[in-house]
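F.,

This is the one I mentioned.
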């Protein structure tokens, strides 16, 4: 019985790791495509320099939602574990 639970937990952790790798791969691919398709506008790039030198922005810069993404991965792993546990208990 303990081996079965360990196996299900290992499968759930594997599913979470696969989801994390897929999320990171998608972000890398999107970044590569955006970098390849970026064309700088040299003629109009200096129009905003004066504003950048004389204006101050207030507030804070928000980073990525890595806490939310991590929580979603853990919840997905728990759901995967629960579904596998229900399926295994119904087979017996």
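My design for it:
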């Amino acid at each position: 019985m303990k081996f079965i639970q360990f196996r299900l937990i290992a499968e759930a952790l594997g599913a979470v790791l696969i989801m994390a790798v897929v999320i990171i791969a998608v972000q890398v691919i999107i970044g590569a495509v955006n970098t390849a398709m970026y064309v700088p506008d040299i003629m109009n790039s200096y129009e905003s320099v004066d504003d950048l030198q004389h204006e101050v922005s207030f507030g804070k810069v928000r980073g990525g939602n890595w806490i939310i993404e991590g929580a979603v991965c853990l919840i997905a792993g728990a759901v995967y574990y629960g579904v596998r546990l229900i399926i295994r208990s119904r087979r017996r």
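The CA atoms of residues 27 and 78 lie 24 Å apart.

Talk soon.
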